[in-house]
Design a protein that fits this description.
two-stranded antiparallel ribbon; alpha/beta; Rossmann fold; about 160 residues; 6 strands; 4-stranded parallel beta sheet; single chain; 8 helices
Length: about 160
């Protein structure tokens, strides 16, 4: 895995036009599982509304995650369609359970009014390449990302550059 500062810079650059706040808060929390991280986020920021964003590839195996139902009950979930994974995602045990909580993509604009569990499938023309294929094509991708000083906009803590 690339160093945290490089992954953080890359994610920040990719999210620059989206209402997404990149954070490295898991480093501070010391959590290993997503459900643990969400519990701590909700305790620390009780006035904030979170939406868990995942790809269809993750929904296909979401039922294998630790405490996945607790995670689904804690925050609405938005799933990004991924070429080659949609059929597996829709046929998954997690989708069988979450399907009754499905919302239309149009309702995503009003997500602040949602209560969990809630699920929305977001469709757009994604890049068909996988992260694995991108890393394989450029194993040194992290060396091309700026190592300048950065600050986590959520925790306000510095993200120390890797030397």
């Amino acid at each position: 895995m690339a160093p945290l500062d490089r992954r953080f810079a890359s994610a920040t650059a990719l999210a620059r036009r989206a209402p997404i706040r990149v954070t490295a808060i898991e480093r501070e929390f010391g959590t290993r599982y997503t459900a643990q991280t969400i519990r701590k986020l909700r305790r620390r920021y009780p006035a904030r509304r979170f939406v868990w964003l995942m790809g269809a590839d993750n929904l296909a195996q979401f039922h294998r995650w630790r405490d996945w139902r607790a995670l689904a009950r804690a925050v609405p979930i938005a799933v990004i369609a991924r070429p080659g994974y949609d059929a597996d995602a829709l046929a998954s045990p997690a989708m069988a359970w979450l399907g009754r909580y499905r919302r239309s993509a149009a309702s995503f604009r009003n997500r602040a009014a949602w209560s969990a569990p809630a699920l929305v499938i977001l469709r757009f023309d994604p890049d068909p390449r996988s992260a694995t294929a991108l890393r394989r094509a450029d194993p040194d991708w992290a060396s091309h990302v700026s190592a300048k000083a950065q600050r986590d906009r959520l925790t306000l803590r510095p993200i120390e550059p890797t030397l």
